Each structure stands twice: as C-alpha cells, then as structure tokens.
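User: I'm putting together a teaching handout on how multi-component assemblies are represented. Below are the sequence lines for each component of a complex, exactly as they appear in our records. Could you produce the 3D structure of the whole assembly as structure tokens, so the students can see both representations side by side? Please keep the chain order the same as the input.
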Amino acid sequence: MELEGTILAGRDFAAVEGRVVVEDGEIVAVEEASVDSDDIVLPAFVNAHTHIGDSIAKDAGRGLSLEELVAPPDGLKHRLLREADRTALVEGMRRSLSFMAESGTAATLEFREGGVPGVEALRDASDGIEIDALAFGRDDPDVLDVSDGYGASGANDADFAVERGRARDAGKPFAIHAGEVDATDIHPAIDLDPDLLVHMVHADDEHLARVADDGIPIAVCPRSNLVTDVGLPDVPDLLAHTTVALGTDNVMLNSPSMFREMAYTAKRYDATAVEVLRMATTAGAEIAGRNDGLIEAGRDANLLVLDGDTHNLAGYRDPVRAAVRRAGASDVKRVLHA
Ligand SMILES: [Zn+2]
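Assistant: Of course. Below is the structure of the complete assembly, with chains in the same order as your input.
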C-alpha cells in the first residue's frame, strides 16, 4: 500500500512530496514524486509516560496539591480508584487507549499501579485496540514476570534495589520518577542506573552531567507539571544533555493527546518544532527499543496521516509546525498500526 502527501521523512522530518510505500507493516520506500494530496504523513506518536488507571477521575480535585491529588495511599486519585470496581477501571482505561489510538499514538509507556493484577487489567483494557500499551508495573517485584518493565514511584519512597536487580535479570527496562517536586530524589534515582528518568523538573547541572555521562533518557510531562504546580522542566537544557521524550502523564490531569502536549511544549519553550516532534515520536520509540517513530525504509509502518485541508489546517505554511503547533485529533485522517 502507499500513502501520498507531504512526508515528514527521517530524523529531521524533512518534508518530501511523494509517497511512503508499505509492505507487510514495514516501510519499504519513501519516494519523491509530484502528488495531488494535501495530506501530511508523519510517524505515529510514542507517548513516553502515562498513568491511564485514573481515567475514572478526569479533572477531579480542583485546587489540590500534587500530594493531595495523587500520593498513595490517601490522595484523591487513590480514594477514587478504591471506590471503583474492576470493570469500571478497565473500561475507563479502554476508552483512554481508544482515544490515544485514534489520535495517532502507536505506543504508550504506561506506569501501571497495582502489581500483577494491575498489569492484567491493562492487558484486558488494550485487547483489540491498535496501540501497544507497554506496562511498567510496580508495587511488587514479581510484576516483572508479566510486565514490559518496572516503573518505580521515586527514590524517596523505597530503595528499589531488589526491583532494579529483577528488571536487569529479566532484561526489562527500569524507569523511575525523579525531580518532580524537588531535587532530593534525583541522585538516588540515578544511582539505580535507570533506563529512563521521568519529570526531572528540578534537575541541576550536576544531575545533568551524570545523565549525559550515563546516557540516561528523560521523559518530560510539561502540562502535568503545570497543572500540579511543581515548576517546569528546562526542556532545552535537558535536550542539550540527553534524549528527551514527551509524555502526557495522568489522564486525571490532562487529555492523553500528544497534539496538546506538543503544542504546549513548542509554545512554552525555545525548542524548534522539529525537536518537539522528535520528542513525541523518535525519542519515545528509542527509549522503548522500538523500530518505529521515524519514516525511513526498514522501519515499522506506524504512521499518522493528517488531512492538511481541514478547516483547521488549510493553508498551512510549514508542515512540521502545523503538525506540532496547530493540529489536533480532529485533523487525523488515518492511523496505520503495523
Ligand atoms: Zn508518572
């Protein structure tokens, strides 16, 4: 099959007029040609950090602090989760995953609470939906028998040495929140030799030197940090030190729309649209060890087609800036999931 239009090809998303040729779920060629199409073809998104378990608590808790909102065991999120039955929780996650798939997300790195049953609930929720919901389980080292990785809450909560070792033995990634409310848990998190740090709002030069030396990627969630009022990560500084990917964090706090996360990030920071699109696609794919997030021959054909002639996008001047700063779920024409 072929997708025609303006193709955002390669690591730099160079706009190529022509077509992407796909065979058996793999991109086999990007061909330059004169085509009659307003479509913009880009890699599907990889959301580098979500908690979709709180899909039943959308926009609850106006005015509460981060701790009052989401800290276990008595934060509002956890009280609402305890009150909900499993069917409602799975259905809530299923609706969120469906929206994410429809709005162009190929995969999500989901931090899943609740040990093995939590991971099993995510598997049930994602069954039949065209999205790879990667479960970073927690709350039980045995979760690594069924999860795709371990997603630790933060180094001030426990030492996580056992979980870190189990993840290494299982050949699965170990990810951890760090530097969300303050800097006290950043060095201890880096000491665990993680495969991914999440947030890093309060990272300083010393932390980032270690991150660069160890080649540790970072997932940032700027809209979440905005809502919880913990400060904002210095995205350009993080980009200067390592791979940085975008995540939408808790569904309770924000819609899991990568379009919204990109637009906010692009407008809030001195980062180019190319850098932000890379944070939403290639970076997350690299972190998760995936063969997508990039349009070139040999990659998995997880692709997103925007209709460049919607009322919203018609007349756009720059396809990358249009995709990053302006487009939304209603401009999605097609999502290909290999
Ligand atoms: Zn998180």
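A couple of points students might notice: The mean pLDDT is 96. The chain has two domains: 2-44+293-336, 54-287.
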